[in-house]
Amino acid sequence: MLDLLVVVPHPDDESFGAGGALLLAKRAGLRTGILTLTRGEAGRTLGLCPPEELPKVRTQELERATEILEVDFLEVLSFPNALPQAVHREYRGPKEMTEGPRGLASGKGLLDHPEAEAAIRERLLAQRPRYVLTFPPDGINGHPDHVATSRYATRAAEGLAQVVYFVRPEGPWPVTHRLHLPEWALARKLKALAQHRTQALSLLDFMERYPERLWTETFHLPGTEGTQEGPWW
């Protein structure tokens, strides 16, 4: 049985959004887990593998990151990753279209697969976490897989677990809990992020635009008012 389950669409989302939370929860004696809905086949390859091998490579990257984050449970599902073209047009603009080769994908990704909700609920019934940590309803950046995952995870958790969103510091969902990572946790989070080698351009872009979010993670616990410096568990 778990205390905290992170539900995300892609390998590397777990480290960006909740790497520090996973480490601090584990240090507090909680049992933690990660459920990833896709194998990230629409991500970049950076020439590190053929496109058809990207799902396997990204799963391996996630497994290494999971070990560093000291996670007790990991499961990677195989729902499809959204087409990168759709992603660019929705939330990043044309610049990323030229930032390196990507893997293979088809369709609208998770938006075309509402059955993912049942798959999440099945895992919640098996693992019985107290908290489900996932993207907020806007997916933070509008990525269709992020939005779909938030929708499915929130509905799947009804009556089973408390949903918590990792959110941007500036809203639109108010920050109710802020984690300032101690040095040891920041070091391990950065090491976990570094395992996602095929997605290094995404990491560099994140570091350039939001460096403070590497050592400070912000969350929204629905039904909570004000901001607490520290965890919600």
TrEMBL record:
SUPFAM superfamilies: LmbE-like
Gene3D superfamilies: LmbE-like
InterPro entries per record: GlcNAc_PI_deacetylase-related, LmbE-like_dom_sf
PANTHER family reported in the protein's UniProt record: N-ACETYLGLUCOSAMINYL-PHOSPHATIDYLINOSITOL DE-N-ACETYLASE, N-ACETYLGLUCOSAMINYL-PHOSPHATIDYLINOSITOL DE-N-ACETYLASE-RELATED
Name of the protein: PIG-L family deacetylase
